[in-house]
Amino acid sequence: MVSTLEALVPGGQATPGPPLGPSLGPLGVNVKAVIDRINEQTSAFKGMQVPVKIMVDDKKQFTIQVGTPPTSALIKKELGIETGSGTPNTQTVGNLTVKQAINIARMKKNDTLARNLKNAVKEIVGSCVTLGVTFEGMKPREAIAAINSGKFDSEMNEPI
Fold first, then answer.
1. Which of 26, 47, 96, 113 is the one with CA 20 to 30 A from 76?
2. DSSP-assigned states of every residue in 26-54
3. Pair 60, 86 in one domain
């Protein structure tokens, strides 16, 4: 039988304290080895909460699946902002570039339903609406129309 543990951990900074240590201890696995592997796999997401799933089998072998942080967290990290706008329709807190959106889309490639980079970027731009973030100086809804019209096709012609 396989035991599964799901937790949100700080990227690259998981510790044997709660929530992981007390949950892993009764499963009989080497807690330090699990924490080290999680920190190794989540180091790219330093400073963000990362969803992690740990599966432990009867032989005390473990497998770790690392998710990606929410899109909004990736946008905030990319722009270097702490929070989104309290009034996103009237106040903007940052401007996302095509290059930054492509970078986020590639990080989220395993979690997206998009079949190509262009549609993945549109998902990222859609998340900008609630944060009060513009995309290449345009409001997100205008930016999606511009993407649909082919304005950024030269940057987004690669596979995701």
1. 113
2. GGT--HHHHHHHHHHHHGGGBTSEEEEEE
3. no
Interhelix angle for 98-107 vs 71-79, to 10°? 140
Domain count, the chain: 2
Does 61 share its domain with 17?
yes
Tokens 């592997």 locate to 37
What does the pLDDT look like over 18-73, one tens digit per residue? 889 898 988 889 999 999 999 999 988 888 888 999 999 989 899 999 988 889 99
Phi/psi of residue 5, nearest 5 degrees: -125, 130
17 sits in which H/E element? none
- State the Cα–Cα distance between residues 142 and 17, nearest whole angstrom: 46
Is residue 32 left, alpha or beta, with left meaning phi > 0 and alpha meaning psi from -120 to 50?
alpha
| DSSP H helical ranges for 25-148 | 31-42, 71-79, 98-107, 117-131, 140-148
For 88-100, write each residue's pLDDT tens digit.
888 999 999 999 9
Pull the structure tokens for residue 151.
Answer: 């304005």
Quick one: tokens of 108? 């989220």
Pairing of strands 94-96, 49-56: unpaired
